[in-house]
Amino acid sequence: MRAMLFQEVGKPLRPVRVPVPEPGPGEVLLKVHACGICRTDLHIVDGELTEPALPLIPGHQIVGSVAKLGDGVERFREGTRVGVPWLGATCGACRYCRSGRENLCDHARFTGYQRNGGFAEFTVADARFCFPIPGGYPDLQAAPLLCAGLIGYRSLVMAGEGERLGIYGFGAAAHIVTQVARFRGWRVYAFTRPDDQAGQAFAREMGAVWAGASHERPPEELDAAIIFAPAGELVPAALRAVGKGGVVVCGGIHMSDIPPIPYDILWGERSIRSVANLTRRDGEEFLALAPKVPVRTEVTAYPLSAANEALDDLRSGRMRGAGVLVIDEG
Ligand SMILES: [Zn+2]
Ligand SMILES: [Zn+2]
Hints:
The protein folds into 2 domains: about 1-145 and about 280-325, Medium-chain alcohol dehydrogenases, catalytic domain (Quinone Oxidoreductase, Chain A, domain 1); about 150-275, NAD(P)-binding Rossmann-like Domain (Rossmann fold). The protein is an alpha/beta fold. Helix 3 (about 150-160) crosses helix 4 (about 170-185) and helix 3 (about 150-160) crosses helix 7 (about 280-290). It is built from 8 helices and 17 strands. One zinc ion binds next to loops. One zinc ion binds near residues 90, 91, 93 and 107. Belongs to the zinc-containing alcohol dehydrogenase family.
């Protein structure tokens, strides 16, 4: 099969031909139709996430169809269309797994990081961690739901209840969470890099009531803010934008250092928290909710062989909505 292989930090992914993997017990072999690109992929290839299983096939927003069942898999049949998210496996036994917090599992293994992912024609996944894809979503439009959508959803839940939501960084996750937030009665205020007029226009198209530069103060005090951009200086900016009791949710897996903050911007019961990974329950809830909103994803498509160009476009902020590798539309 064709695959894009990550072998060394700082080097582009290499197009290779490797054998089609065999599903082990409890696993499924998937024919990959599409695989979304995520900022986490950049953190992996740039070496900011330091524990990849090399050589590695990245990609953790996989839409594919079941091509072969490993021993003991009864959940799916051949041909079923499924999605594979970032959470690839958990231990099921640690104190986090036993308390409904498998996203924090001490021994979790992540797709496209410690398990091979979807930048390839086939991949193998643990059947227990795959999701059926809701009907009505073509492969390309479904792929971004699996991380941008899921992490965005978990971040929104962590933002709590309120009416005025700030979103810092308007990429794949933001464009989805904006739609869900509006559906739940929030007014969305979008913050982008100061010179990113296209990003601000995109945010307004998606239903943001206001869009401006990240250092600006929004016209109303916010109830909560979600930061998707990996820039630590946004944390004090967001704390200054939220009112008393407001929460600032950091939705990314990596962020540059947060500068020192004066206590008075945290005072008034403001809080800062991160969101880590996802649980299968998040996936089930979000994939049931998405068609009701209905969430529509804007995608920029690339062929598998252009994975490096797609990552560069994401890095430079040139990508509108979510980037998706199209592997075999079918
Ligand atoms: Zn991701
Ligand atoms: Zn565990």
